[in-house]
Structures are given as C-alpha cells and as structure tokens.
TrEMBL record, chain A:
Lineage: superkingdom: Bacteria
Molecular function via GO: transmembrane transporter activity
Keywords noted in UniProt: Cell inner membrane, Cell membrane, Membrane, Transmembrane, Transmembrane helix, Transport
Family annotation (InterPro entries): ABC_transp_permease (IPR001851)
Signal peptide: none
Record function comment: Part of the ABC transporter complex LsrABCD involved in autoinducer 2 (AI-2) import. Probably responsible for the translocation of the substrate across the membrane.
The protein's name in its UniProt record: Autoinducer 2 import system permease protein LsrC
Membrane topology term: Multi-pass membrane protein
Assembly mode: The complex is composed of two ATP-binding proteins (LsrA), two transmembrane proteins (LsrC and LsrD) and a solute-binding protein (LsrB).
Cellular compartments per GO CC: plasma membrane
Organism for this UniProt entry: Sphaerochaeta halotolerans
TrEMBL record, chain B:
ABC transporter domain: residues covered: 6-243, 250-498
GO cellular component assignments: plasma membrane
PANTHER family tied to this protein: CARBOHYDRATE TRANSPORT ATP-BINDING PROTEIN MG119-RELATED (PTHR43790), D-ALLOSE IMPORT ATP-BINDING PROTEIN ALSA-RELATED (PTHR43790:SF3)
Signal peptide feature range: none
Keywords: ATP-binding, Cell membrane, Membrane, Nucleotide-binding, Repeat, Sugar transport, Translocase, Transport
Membrane association type: Peripheral membrane protein
Keyword Transport among record annotations: yes
PROSITE patterns according to UniProt: ABC_TRANSPORTER_1, ABC_TRANSPORTER_2
Name of this protein: Sugar ABC transporter ATP-binding protein
From TrEMBL, chain C:
Keywords on record: Cell inner membrane, Cell membrane, Membrane, Transmembrane, Transmembrane helix, Transport
Topology with respect to the bilayer: Multi-pass membrane protein
Full protein name: Autoinducer 2 import system permease protein LsrD
Subunit relationships: The complex is composed of two ATP-binding proteins (LsrA), two transmembrane proteins (LsrC and LsrD) and a solute-binding protein (LsrB).
UniProt KW Transmembrane helix keyword: yes
Main localisation: membrane
MF term (GO), any: transmembrane transporter activity
UniProt subcellular location: Cell membrane
InterPro entries on file: ABC_transp_permease
Species name: Sphaerochaeta halotolerans
Cellular component GO terms held in the UniProt record: plasma membrane
Source species taxonomy: Bacteria, Pseudomonadati, Spirochaetota, Spirochaetia, Spirochaetales
UniProt cross-references to Pfam families, sorted A to Z: BPD_transp_2
Length: 333, 505, 345
C-alpha cells in the first residue's frame, strides 16, 4: 500500500536533489529579501538571470561530460577562440546577421569539441589530460588568430552588440537563447536514446556495453555537445561584453564545474539532471548578487563559492554513505 | 519427454593452463526449472558465461530450439532469447526501474523518434503486476532493496521475451519472505513455458523449486536426474566424489597454547556471530560456499575491514587491529584470495613485491632502501619457495598463476608470522604448485605457526585441517574435529540455514 | 634447481642475442626520449641565435620557471598515488597574502618564512583530510578549495597590493649565489630535485608510493597506511606552496590576490609531461626534471627568437597530449613486436 500522507510526499520530494536545492535557494532568499526588499525586484532578478545565462549554457555542456564520467577543462579556451573568431568575422563583415555569427561560433566550437572527444574515445587519453592539453592549444590558437590584438566595441556592428540585450516579449534575447538551450537539452536528456545512453555510460560502463550502448560514440557526443555550447557561449560573450579579448573566460571551466557540483551532479558519473544544473547556476548567481546585501564585499564571492561547493560535496557524500550503510544492514543484520 | 529447448553438447573451454569446462552436457526443456549444481570452481559460471555470449567455447556445440547457436557477444545471446540475471552488476543504480528494463532498447514513437515513456511505464507496470510485485516503476534502483533489484532483473528478462532465464545464486541475499516471492515468480515463468536454469548451493531450495538437476565437478559433467527421484545424499556424493584422490602431506599436529580467541565477531552485511579459538601449530580449516563470508572474516582479523561487533584476544590480550600494519606487527600474515589485485602489485618486480611488507626491516634506519640487503633477503625467501622466473627483477605480472602464488607466500614468510591466514591459496594453480603449497602449510604448522586455511575444495579442507569451522550465509554453522568430519557432514553444515536467519526476515 | 639454472642461462642467451631489442627498449623509455628532445631543442636554438648558449642567459632564464618546477616535485607524489591537486596556485596565493600582510606589519624574514610554511602546510592538510576522511575524489575537493583558499586572499586583499617587504627579502627570488651567476632559486630547485629523487627512488616512502599507485588494495594488504600517506602527500605539497609563495613574493615584491593564477594546470602539465602516469604508479623525478627544463628553455628560446608566447602554449598543449599518446602507441608497438618474436621463436 503506497504511503499517501503529506509527510511522505515531502520526504519523497526532498529526496530529489533538485527540490532540496530549490528549497535551499528559497530559504536563502527569505533573509536576503527581508534585508533588502529590492533584491527580489523584477530588475534585479532580470540582472541575475542575464548574468547567469552564459554560464548556464556552458554548464550544461560540462554536465554531459561529467555525466559520462569525464571532465572538460577546455571550455574557457573554446569560448575564447570562438568569441574571438565571431568578433573578427563581425569586424570584417559588419552586415552579417548575429544569428549567423552564433551559428559560426557553434560550428567552430563543435570541431574543437570533436577533437577532444576523438582523443578521449579513440586515443584513450583520460579526459583530464586531453582537455588540459587542449586548454593550452585552444588558448594559443586564439592568440594566433587575433595576432595578440583585441576586437573592441567600435570595431563591431551595433546589431551584433545589441543582439543579446534586445528583448522579445520583455525578455532579453540572451535569456531566450539560454531558455531554448535548456529546453532542447532537457528534451535530449529525457526523450532521446543517446541522451539516456550518456547516463548508462556514466553510471555503469560495463552494463551499458552489455545492453549494446556504443561507448566511444557516447564519449564523442558529450564532448561535441560541450564544444558546441561553448561556441554558442563564445559568440554571445563577445556581443554581450562588446569586446573580444584573448584572455576572455579564463578559468570559466571552474565555474561551470562548480554549477554542476552544486546541481547535484556526481563526479563518479551517471547521476544528475539539467534542471539541477540550472538551479546550481542560479544558486551561484543569487549568492554572488546577494553578497553586498549581507554587507560582504564582492571580493568574498570566490570564497563563498568555494565554501558552498565544499558543503554541497560533504552533504552529498554523507547522505550517500548513510544510504549504503542502510542497504548493508538490510542484507545480514 | 518433450524436445529440449537448449542442448549443450561436448562443450569444452580451455583457459591458459586450466580446463574450466571439459566436455560437458546440459539439456533443458520448456517449462522446466533446472538446477545446475557443483562446488565453487566446478565450471558453472564458465558455462553461464558461454551461454550468455561472454566467453566463446573452445569446442562443442549448442542448440536452441533445434537451431545451432553461436554468440559473438552478450547482445547476440539476448536476442536469441537467453538472459542471465546477475547480481547487481548489470544495473544502473541512479536510474529508474523502467529505464533499467528498457536501457539499450528504449521504446520510441515511430515517427518522431521521441522516447515513449508512457508506454514504457505502462508495460513495466504491467510486467510488475503480472509478477505481483509492489514496486513503483519510477523508483530509482539505488533505493530498492537487494531483493527488489533481483525482481527488476527478472522483469527485465521478461521484457526481452527470453525463452531461457539463467538465475545465478538468486537467493543468496534474500530473506525468507523474499525467497517465497521469488519462487512464486519462478513458478509463473514456468507456467508460461520458459525454461529456467537455476544455480544454487541451497538444497532445500533445489528440492522445493527445481524439477531436474545436472551436476558438474572440476569442469566435468558428472550426472543428471529428476529432483523428485533423488535425495540430498545422492547429490552431495555426486558433488564431492573425487575422481583423482589427491595425496596430502602427513601432518602430526603439535597443538600448543591458545593464540587467538574470536568471540561473537560480526560485520554489518557480511557475517554475524563468529566465535572460535586458534592454537599454535594448528591448521584450522574455514569452509563455506560462495557468499558464506569466509574472506570477510579473515579480512577483519587482519585489520583490513572493521568489525561492527564482537571481540578478539591475541595471547590473552584484547586485540582489534585498525589496519593491516597493526596485525602484521602482532605477527599475523594474510595471503589474500585475489592474488592479482590484493596479493601482488603486478607492475612491480618480484624483489619489490617480496620485500614490501618487511621493507622497514631491510632498510637503513627503516628509511633508506639497501639494494644488497634487499636482494639477499629476496633471494633467500624466493629460493625457499622455488619460484620459477627469469630473475627477481621481472614484473610480477609476467609469471604464471602458480608462481605468482609462490611470490605471495615468499612475501609473507619473511614476516615470520605466528598466525598465517591463507585464503584460497590453491585456487587456479597447477597440481605441482598445489602440492608445494600443501607441503609449505604443513611445514609452517610443524614450526608452531597457527594456520587458518580457507578453501572451497572439500578434500583440501579435510586433508589439511585439524579442525574445521563451517560457515553458511554469514553464519557459523559448526566447528568440527577433522578426524571425525566427513565430506558429507561438512557439506551438510555448509548448506544448512541457521534458524536465526529466518527470524531476521 | 637444475631447471632453474637452465632457465637463467636461457634468459642470458636471449639477452645477448637481442642487443637491438634492448636498444629499442631503452630508447622507447619516455625519460630517454625527453632527454633526446631537450638536446635537440638546445641544438636548434644554438644554431638560430647566439644569445641562447650563453651561461649568463641560461642561468637568468631559470628565474622564469624555477618556482613552477619546484611545485612539480611534491605534485609527483600526489599524482603517483592517483590523486590530483588543483588548489596549489590558490594555496600559494593565500600564503603570499599572509606573507605580504605580515611584512607590511613589520614582521621579520624568519617569521615571514615560518608563517608561509605554516599556512601552506595547514591548507594542504585540510585538502588531504577532506579527501581521505570523506572518501571524495581529489579533483572535486581541490576544485572547491581552489575557490576557498584564493577566496580568502581575494576577500581580505580586494584589489589592493602588498608591496612593503623587509630589506634583503628580495634575496630568495632575485639574487644569485654570492660570487656566481647561479640564481639562489635554481640552486634550491636542484637541491630539491636531488632530495625528491632520493625520497622517491631510494626510500621506503617512495617505494610505497609506487605500490599505492599501482594497486592501492594490494598496498593495503601489505600493511601500508594508504590514507595516511595520501594525507602526507597533500600536506607536503601545501608546505611547498608556502615555500614557493616566499620565492614568488620575493621575486616580484608585490602580492596581489590574482598571484600565480593558472599555475595549477601548468604544474600538472609539467608532471604529466615528465612521464608520471595520471592514473598513478609510474614515473620518475628525473623525467619531471627534464620535462620542466624542456618547457622552461623552450619558452626562453622561443622568446629569444621573438616567437610569441602563444606558439609556446600550443606546443606545450601538444606535447602533453603526445606525452600520453606516444607511450601508449609505443606499448602497442612493443606488444606487437613481442608477439611476432614469440611466433618466430
């Protein structure tokens, strides 16, 4: 007989990490908004969301790589290269539509992701080493491409720079794109075979092989997704910040990984979801934005981020260990 | 008698240095629950792996429904209609029941290619209902009990429309009520005309659920028959009767004073309430079938795992090691079960392997390695074990199984143990090395060392031990004097379910 | 016994027969290949510019890589056990902040050194304890502490800099051994190379590191305290972060919160390029030494030839991938060869 009581419903809901995280976010928002009522104003919320849009796109790519039990350290460099490339295309041909630039960024990013994926899947180089190498290579290529110079705001077309800011139905294009990406990959993860196979490879590669999942194909696909999304993010980055700098997005991989960890994605692979990653990203955004409210200078942002990740990791681990113990106790008293 | 669904004929599987299966037969009919019986290492798992496409037979033929079958991989076997229910290994714990059943062949909308979760959910629920199982198709597998996971595996086999379902020790982790559930399902499978190959060590279960049995021993086919027309004694005799009577070295025990006392030792999920004494110069056999918890007991004595309850006394003083180094300092040595993963560092040289536990003693001030002292030490103990290799500088992974085992023994005799624990020391090694190991064990005992010997081979346990502790499913079922023990009596205790367990359900 | 002697003569015969095989075996070792590459690099630059093979220049160039090369040494221990630490740059930043702050408060040089070493050691200990006590992957924990440690420096320092240091503090990072043209930093590095080579290759500690890296389980069954040793590795690495922070602060005499940013990946690159397997259990201090020198002098030479740093980044990235891919290909080649030889014999 299934337990239909309210308390069991709450328990079940909380067992889902996404729900627990959302609750935590709400709990966090209450004191913040009491202290500073403007925090929950439409304007501030829209600022937070726009700030987090690019990170959420990149974090979703990183999510798939971690889900398949890997890590992609090259995301920052791919963003830089594609951002520089689209910036320069725009400089040379100011009339090109921003949408085409986004597509160009995605195309270039896809090739870079493919390179990572092939090295991991067929070269059998551990993902951490592969992307540690390509983080250097892609950053170097960015310098080669630009010749060490920048693309500045007045060298770019107004349509491109304005593109992320322009609104449609009151929501910025940047946010629309992020929403679209979230929707597409929510669908991918939930309703396509490949999407599910990523979970299988990350969770139990041996068993996955047993039921006919092609491991190499999945490994290439996850890096392909990560690269493509970084390409998109790069094109948006250049437009949003109205400049393409060689050093752009340095260290961004750590923020992307942090958003995943916060969203409950396990480093061991095979668990986590898009919604969790989005909430994890939002969590980072809220915390960063809320620091001044609690009279902490923004300089403490990094520290608070680190602390939150560490706490999230610790809680995850402890709850997992408890679960294992409970299962063991069921076996032989 | 109706025509066989599966016919295995003259199947042989040879691994380098070992004949895992030697010309075996097996035939299964639809609507039959067929027990495959044999000791550990009798070749049951090898046959299962051949049937499920993991191994390819060296020779022999197999037919399914009259057609010849030959599988290149596991998926081939599945498509042919043979599905094995493994223990947990093939599950995705982070995914739902529905998904575990459909991974690899998710149902899709034929036009949009969108996964059809609704149908998958409904079918899963249908299958679960058919089996009268109270499991939510949306539950994550990691939140299910071990029993429920088994049921999900069975449902998965059903979803694949398997003709032959292989169940390898399906009840080993189940409580009494759960076993009843499982048997209900097995019976309904039977009524649907499926064939079930049932591998179990538990006789009461075999007699309750199985119609037919086949016995393997040492990779060979021994015999078969109707369960209803047999009794336990007949089958036990088939399991243990030895074709080659091995010679064991003569060992006149000179039992000294009590050295180790184990009282009510327990470990959550592994074993419960183990109590025995161990004396100097004694060889204490520890017998049990797969999953009895023998290795876990000695791992705990050696300090690798922690005990959850109970006490130990070493020479009268309380003893509870926090790590292997604690027990090593007190004179305990363990030759572990898995020599490739636990006994040796395969990618290190023999020298470095043999000196590893005593490195501190061989070094200047216990810190700086000394090549000469080390080489001398290794030479001395390695030669004593007569290791055959191209030299002590080669990596351990280049040696044969028997020689690897000699390296492990050489590694531990140098520690001058007072208690020597050997976990399956002769598993998978050639006859000559086996004899050498037996000789060595007796020598050690004659020198006054207390020996705990774990073995799955009854003759070895009977031939070597002075006393025998028998375990079943984590519980200690008997301590027997080897002089009075017979193969029958030991085996009977090894398959006896302790009453306590039932109350646990 | 006779059989054994027979076996030994046989193996000796095989040895003598296959000088060619042994040469192939030797030259396919990563350390040997690296040494050949560095010689080629030196020849290349010497023929291209007269400023390269100049003792003064060669010595001066070491200022640019000594600190990272020093950090690569304790990192060998960590990676040898199959762990990783991506928080070292942040620990350096934290230590540098503490040093800069204390120096501004007028602390003496010995107390500055003590403070840096203390803070670094504690930070490393924290990493090690979190990783082993909670049984969490090292990459996850050090990812968090990367933000945590640097976050403290950023939070306390903001966008300010600390530039007041005691007189003579510049010695560690800027000066030469009196009467020579050899920088103090470089001498310290060479001494540490010898020390780490001694520990890794000549002591029980080193031997146990290899055992853990190859099979943590077999190591545990041999009485090695695996967790304790992993904690020690992280703690030692933290200690050297403290040391490096002194050298770095002394060299640039200015501490900002973004100090040493990006060093984590560079240092791991040096270790892996030096032939230490990222999965643990394989590698040598010599390899990492040659790898560090190779990267250092490649950068220096390319700088002399007015190549941008860019090309250098690409070369290092490629080298890293090749360093992992090549041994794998060589292994495959060797295995194939062995198979062919067996079939022949």
């Amino acid at each position: 007989m299934p337990d239909l009581s309210f308390s069991s419903f709450v328990k079940k809901a909380l067992a889902r990490r996404e729900a627990a995280l959302t609750l935590l976010l709400v709990v966090l928002l209450v004191p913040i908004s009491i202290r500073s009522p403007q925090f929950l104003s439409a304007k501030n919320i829209s600022t937070i969301l726009n700030d987090m849009a690019i990170l959420s796109i990149v974090a979703i790519g990183e999510f798939y790589v971690i889900l398949a039990n890997g890590i992609d350290l090259s995301v920052g460099s791919i963003i830089a290269f594609t951002g520089m490339a689209t910036g320069m295309i725009n400089e040379a041909n100011p009339t090109v539509s921003p949408l085409l630039l986004l597509l160009a960024g995605m195309g270039i990013g896809m090739v870079m992701g493919l390179f990572n994926g092939v090295l991991v899947a067929y070269g059998k180089i551990p993902p951490i080493i592969t992307t540690l190498g390509t983080v250097n290579i892609y950053r170097g290529l960015t310098f080669l491409l630009s010749g060490g110079t920048w693309v500045t705001a007045h060298e770019m077309s107004k349509t491109y720079i304005d593109f992320p800011r322009n609104t449609f139905l009151g929501v910025s294009n940047l946010l629309w794109i992020a929403i679209l990406v979230i929707a597409v990959f929510y669908y991918f993860s939930r309703y396509t075979r490949t999407g599910r196979e990523v979970y299988a490879i990350g969770g139990n590669p041996t068993a996955a092989k047993f039921v006919g999942v092609n491991e190499n194909r999945v490994r290439v696909v996850v890096f392909l997704i990560s690269g493509t999304l970084c390409g998109l993010a790069g094109a948006l980055w250049t437009a949003r910040y109205a400049s393409a700098v060689n050093e752009m997005a340095t260290g961004f991989e750590m923020q992307a990984v942090a958003a995943c960890v916060l969203g409950g994605v396990n480093f061991a692979g095979g668990s986590g979801g898009i919604i969790g990653v989005v909430i994890g990203t939002l969590f980072l955004g809220v915390v960063t934005n809320a620091l001044p409210v609690i009279y902490l200078s923004v300089f403490w942002q990094t520290f608070v981020q680190g602390l939150i990740i560490l706490i999230a990791l610790t809680l995850n681990t402890i709850s997992d260990q408890r679960k294992t113990k409970k299962l063991l106790a069921q076996r032989r008293g | 008698m109706q025509q066989a669904l599966l016919e295995v004929q003259h199947v042989t599987k040879v691994f380098p240095g070992i004949r895992a299966l030697d010309d075996v037969h097996l035939s299964l009919r639809r609507g039959e629950v067929h027990a495959l019986i044999g000791e550990n290492g009798a070749g049951k798992s090898t046959l299962v792996k051949i049937l499920t496409g993991v191994y390819f037979p060296t020779s022999g033929s197999m037919t399914l429904d009259g057609k010849k079958i030959s599988f290149k991989n596991a998926i081939d076997a599945q498509q042919a209609g043979i599905v094995a229910i493994h223990q947990e290994a093939s599950m995705f714990p982070e995914l739902s029941v529905t998904e575990n059943i459909y991974m690899g062949h998710h149902l899709r909308n034929p036009k949009t290619k969108k996964l059809d979760w609704k149908t998958m959910y409904e079918r899963t629920q249908g299958l679960l209902l058919r089996m009268q199982l109270d499991i939510n198709p949306d539950s994550l597998v990691k939140n299910l009990s071990v029993a429920q996971r088994h049921m999900v595996e069975i449902v998965k086999a059903l979803s694949l429309d398997a003709d032959l379902v292989i169940m390898d020790e399906p009840t080993s982790a189940l409580t009494g009520r759960e076993v009843d559930d499982l048997f209900r399902i097995v019976r309904s499978l039977k009524e649907e005309g499926k064939a079930i190959l049932f591998i179990s060590h538990k006789f009461e279960e075999i007699f309750e659920i199985c119609d037919y049995y086949t016995v393997f021993r040492d990779g060979q086919y021994i015999g078969e028959g109707k369960v209803a027309e047999s009794d336990e004694d007949t089958i036990i005799n088939m399991m243990i009767g030895r074709s080659i009577d091995q010679m064991y070295p003569h060992h006149e025990p000179k039992i000294g004073k009590k050295i180790l006392e184990v009282k009510h030792l327990s470990q959550l999920g592994a074993f419960k309430d183990i109590s025995f004494d161990l004396h100097e110069g004694e060889i204490l056999g520890l017998f049990g079938l797969v999953g009895a918890g023998r290795s876990e007991v000695v791992r705990t004595i050696f300090g690798i795992d922690k005990a959850s309850e109970g006490t130990m006394h070493l020479l009268g003083k309380p003893f509870m090691p926090k790590g292997a180094i604690d027990s090593m300092r007190k004179g305990i040595a363990l030759v572990p079960e898995d020599r490739q993963r636990q006994g040796l560092v395969l990618k290190m040289s023999l020298t470095h392997n043999i000196s590893l536990p005593v490195l501190t003693n061989l070094c200047w001030k216990g810190l700086v390695t000394n090549k000469k002292t080390e080489a001398k030490y290794v030479q001395e103990h390695g030669d004593q074990m007569e290791i055959k290799s191209a030299g002590y500088h080669v990596d351990a992974e280049t040696l044969s199984g028997g020689n690897q085992q000699k390296v492990v023994l050489a590694k531990w005799i140098g520690t001058n143990p007072k208690i020597l624990i050997l976990d399956e020391p002769t598993k998978g090694i050639d006859v000559a090395t086996k004899a050498a190991v037996h000789e060595f064990v007796c020598e050690m005992a004659d020198k006054g060392v207390a020996v705990i010997l774990i073995s799955s081979e009854l003759p070895e346990i009977l031939g070597m031990s002075d006393r025998i502790v028998v375990m079943h499913e984590g519980y200690q079922t008997a301590i027997l004097d080897a002089k009075e023990a017979t193969a029958e009596s030991v085996m009977r205790y090894a398959i006896t379910t302790v009453q306590m367990e039932a109350s646990n359900a | 016994m006779a059989e054994k002697r027979d076996l030994m003569t046989k193996s000796r015969l095989i040895d003598e027969m296959s000088v060619k095989n042994r040469l192939i075996e030797y030259f396919t070792q990563w350390e040997v290949l690296l040494s050949i590459i560095i010689v080629l690099v030196f020849i290349f630059f010497t023929t291209r510019t007269p400023y390269f093979l100049d003792w003064f220049n060669l010595m001066n160039a070491t200022f640019q890589f000594s600190e990272k090369a020093i950090m690569a040494l304790p990192m060998i221990f960590i990676i040898m056990c199959g762990d990783i630490d991506i928080s070292i740059a942040s620990i350096i930043a934290l230590c540098a902040y503490v040093v800069g702050n204390a120096a501004q408060g007028g602390a003496s040089i010995p107390s500055l050194i003590f403070l840096a070493l203390l803070v670094g050691t504690l930070a490393g200990l924290f990493n090690g304890v979190m990783i082993t006590a909670l049984e969490m992957p090292a990459i996850a924990v050090t990812l968090a502490t990367q933000s945590l440690f640097r976050g403290i420096a950023i939070g306390l320092l903001g966008d300010q800099a600390r530039t007041d240091f005691p007189e003579n503090f510049g010695f560690f990072g800027q000066q030469f051994i009196p009467g020579t043209i050899i920088p103090f930093e470089f001498v310290l590095y060479l001494v540490l190379v010898l020390l780490f080579a001694f520990i890794l290759h000549k002591t029980t500690y080193g031997r146990r590191l290899y055992a853990i890296g190859n099979s943590a389980e077999a190591a545990r069954f041999s009485g090695i305290k695996v967790k304790t040793m992993r904690v020690i590795n992280f703690t030692v690495t933290g200690f050297f972060c403290g040391l490096t922070s002194i050298l770095l602060a002394s060299r640039i005499l200015s501490v900002r919160s973004n100090i040493a940013t990006g060093w984590d990946l560079e240092i791991i690159t040096l270790v892996v390029l030096g032939g230490v397997a990222i999965t643990g259990g394989k590698g040598s201090v010599y390899g990492v030494f040659i790898g560090s020198m190779l990267v250092g002098y490649l950068k220096f030479g390319m700088g002399l030839l007015k190549f941008s740093g860019t090309l250098m980044t690409i070369v290092i990235g490629l080298l890293l991938i090749i360093a992992v891919l090549l041994p794998r290909l060589l292994d495959m080649y060797k295995a194939n060869r062995k198979l062919r030889l067996q079939q022949l014999g």
